[in-house]
Specification:
Elements lengths: L2 E3 L4 E3 L4 E19 L11 E2 L5 E2 L2 E2 L5 E9 L9 E7 L18 E5 L5 E6 L8 E10 L2 E11 L2 H8 L5 H15 L12 H7 L129 H43 L6 H40 L27 E9 L2 E11 L6 E4 L13 H22 L5 E7 L9 H6 L9 H25 L13 E9 L5 H13 L5 E7 L12 H5 L2 E3 L4 E5 L6 E6 L8 H16 L1
Parallel strand pairs: 1-10, 15-18, 15-19, 16-17, 17-18
Antiparallel strand pairs: 2-12, 3-4, 3-7, 3-8, 3-9, 5-6, 6-7, 8-11, 9-10, 11-12, 13-14, 13-21, 20-21
Helix pairs in contact: 1-2, 4-5, 6-11, 8-9
Length: about 700
């Protein structure tokens, strides 16, 4: 799997013979330097460039081009070489091309095997006035080679870059490279124009998507659970964590923070794509027929959705475009908003990763420079050592300030986008305090996703990204009522946490009821000890439950027996192709079972039935929502560990247990709760109940 690197990140290399593929969208000069263990380049014989394109283990292009392939054989790199830096530079201004990287598309660099398989990739973002950049470096550490995303730019061009690497003849060599490039500019390869839909039609090919839909997310290292983000529609579903693999995750199997398995709303299920759409039974009607849109039809994977409607007028030169709600591809406004939120989540993850990596890079660079000063006894005394230390710290501060400025710029743009997107969200995607709920009407079709809360990062605590989970639910939910579900451990009162957890479960269940058509979602409750009676009052009073909450061991056994029987019957009918043979009294609606205070009231048989529902139920429309403290189930030993890992863990209070599928940030999750004193929940549930009564 390709590792998508952010600035400062590294990735191990398992093979010696490689290619570095560069795509810049405009002609650039590509070169490489060999440095010692400190990164110093000792002479021009350590630089591969268009005028001298080969070195032991290295070969670069002889001309400026929009795309390059650099050949590298790490096994042939001289023994004294510990670092291979890949350089990119814009040709000299007299060539008529751009003079700074900020005026062109961000260059993309990929490290591949000789068969073209990508090992790692890096998009060099954040460049502005720079005309030369160290893209990536391959370095030797303890006998093994790694690649690191660098992205260090230089406004002074190649001369400044080579000087920074310690090359004594930097200016002369830079002039020689410019001369060699000028002689070969007639052979420069321009970036090919983007083919139009008309071109593809003439070639018999399907139109390409208007906007990039993203690719498979990199596998997440063990750590916090990933939120189930929503994968963009029309793109192949990532086969890894996509339980929210972004804050909108569909479902899969993931682990929580205490069980190192995976990550952005639930951890991804490595064995199944949490975002995979269920097979469609009918042909999609399409947006032009006026009927409902089938978001799950497999042919959606092969066709591009329509482009978004015209956006705001172009921004003034040098200014970012004004954000527009729904300014993404999709078959409907809901899908466009869904994809836009997904894009915001990814943008925030990546820009924060770039900032953190840049700070780490600045820290490591300062440490290296200070170590060099201290390693020379002559510099430890007198003003020379103090001056070197001050210079290292000043360079560190400059790098950190540049990184923070880039982050602040991106955060400002994302904040402006969130301010226009949030008010435009449909009720299924909206917070409970959104005015859209005041105009709520029971829907006629199921939406594509449901909001389960918000996600944010420490660098931008005020910038919330909606956490959307794909519908229908493909994995159960676990509302953690234990003290481990508190971000700082301040919520230690067991009674309060259980009450808050049950209130969160009621809010989630009410939202599920509200976004389904009348009679197409049924809720059952097991409250064996009756401890959830008060939080359950909104559901009970509205009359939206299938039956009063089940209490005691007998109630537990009855509900579980009926739901397991339903799963068995539907499974047999589906496998036998005899759906018409189902009993006429079987409820065809999606079923949700809320279990409060597990394992109270559960014997071994009931525990096995619960596990069966968690494993087999979602595929046939039976879903599980557990409100429990995992520690209280330790009496059953490790037998219940698969149950907890199969559920998407949510908390009733803010907690940082979710992670994104790209770089694995720990995101703070905040549940989607009804504001204190608001009557919106009662108003929505009353309409749900009235619609159900009218339907029956």
């Amino acid at each position: 799997m390709t590792a998508e690197l952010a600035r400062g990140q590294n990735h191990p290399l398992s093979q010696a013979r490689l290619e570095i593929r560069v795509s810049a969208g405009t002609p650039v000069v590509a070169g490489a330097t060999i440095g010692d263990e400190h990164g110093k380049v000792h002479g021009v014989e350590w630089v591969a460039h268009p005028g001298a394109p080969t070195l032991p283990g290295l070969e670069v292009s002889r001309q400026a081009a929009a795309d390059h392939r650099l050949a590298i054989d790490l096994g042939a790199v001289p023994e004294a070489g510990h670092r291979v830096s890949v350089l990119l530079a814009l040709p000299t201004p007299g060539t008529g091309g751009p003079v700074r990287f900020g005026a062109v598309a961000a260059p993309f660099v990929a490290v591949t095997g000789l068969d073209g398989t990508e090992i790692a990739s890096y998009t060099i973002t954040g460049l502005d006035a720079e005309s030369a950049v160290v893209a990536v470096e391959l370095y030797r550490r303890q006998g093994a080679w790694k690649v690191r995303a660098v992205g260090q730019g230089y406004a002074g061009g190649l001369a400044e870059l080579l000087t920074d690497q310690g090359l004594p003849q930097a200016h002369q060599l830079a002039s020689g490279i410019d001369a060699a490039v000028t002689q070969g500019l007639a052979r420069s390869v321009q970036a090919p124009p983007r083919p139009t839909d008309a071109d593809r039609s003439r070639q018999g090919a399907a139109p390409a998507p208007v906007a990039d839909q993203g690719g498979p997310a990199p596998e997440i290292a063990p750590g916090p659970e990933s939120p189930q983000p929503m994968p963009p529609y029309g793109s192949p579903a990532p086969g890894i964590p996509q339980h929210l693999a972004s804050p909108y995750a569909p479902q899969g199997t993931s682990a929580d923070a205490s069980s190192p398995t995976s990550p952005a709303a639930g951890a991804p299920n490595p064995s199944a794509s949490p975002y995979a759409d269920p097979p469609a039974v009918t042909e999609p009607t399409g947006p032009t027929s006026g009927g409902p849109i089938d978001y799950s039809h497999p042919r959606r994977q092969n066709a591009a959705p329509p482009p978004p409607p015209p956006s705001a007028p172009p921004a003034p030169p040098g200014q970012p475009a004004a954000p527009v709600a729904g300014d993404a591809t999709g078959w409907s406004m809901d899908e466009r908003l869904y994809n836009q939120v997904w894009g915001m989540f990814e943008d925030l993850a990546r820009t924060t990763a770039a900032y953190r990596s840049a700070v780490d890079f600045a820290d490591s660079r300062m440490e290296k420079e200070l170590d060099q000063v201290l390693s020379d006894p002559r510099s430890r005394i007198g003003g020379q050592g103090d001056a070197a230390r001050e210079a290292a710290r000043a360079k560190h501060a400059q790098l950190v300030d540049q990184a923070r400025a880039a982050l602040d710029r991106d955060l400002a743009q994302l904040t402006a986008e969130a301010e226009v997107v949030e008010p435009a969200l449909p009720s299924a995607f909206a917070r409970w305090d959104n005015p859209v709920w005041h105009a709520y009407r029971v829907p006629m079709e199921i939406p594509m996703a449901l909001r389960m809360g918000d996600l944010h990062l420490p660098e931008a605590p005020d910038l919330r990204v909606p956490m959307l989970v794909r519908l229908p639910l493909e994995r159960g939910l676990w509302i953690d009522s234990g003290p481990a579900g508190s971000l700082d451990g301040s919520f230690t009162d067991t009674h309060d946490l259980r009450r808050l957890a049950m209130e969160a479960a009621v809010a989630h269940a009410a939202r599920l009821l509200a976004v389904h058509p009348a009679g197409e979602f049924t809720v059952h409750v097991i409250d064996a000890a009756g401890s959830g009676a008060q939080p359950l009052l909104p559901l009970v009073r509205a009359g939206v439950l299938a039956a009063p909450p089940a209490i005691g061991a007998a109630g537990v056994a009855d509900v579980l027996a009926r739901l397991t029987q339903r799963v068995d019957l539907v499974q047999m009918a589906v496998r036998g192709g005899a759906a018409d043979s189902l009993p006429p009294d079987l409820d065809p609606a999606e079923q949700l079972l809320i279990v409060n205070d597990f394992p109270h009231g559960f014997d071994d048989r009931a525990v096995n039935q619960l596990r069966y529902l968690a494993d087999e139920g979602p595929a046939v429309g039976v879903h599980l929502m557990m409100v429990a403290d995992r520690d209280e189930a330790t009496a059953y030993g490790p037998l219940l560990d698969p149950l907890w890992r199969s559920l998407l863990r949510l908390t009733p209070v803010p907690d940082d247990h979710l992670a994104d599928p790209w770089v694995g940030h720990a995101w703070t999750y905040e549940p989607a709760l009804v504001p204190v004193g608001s009557q919106v929940l009662q108003q929505v549930l009353s309409q749900v109940a009235a619609a159900r009564t009218k339907r029956t």
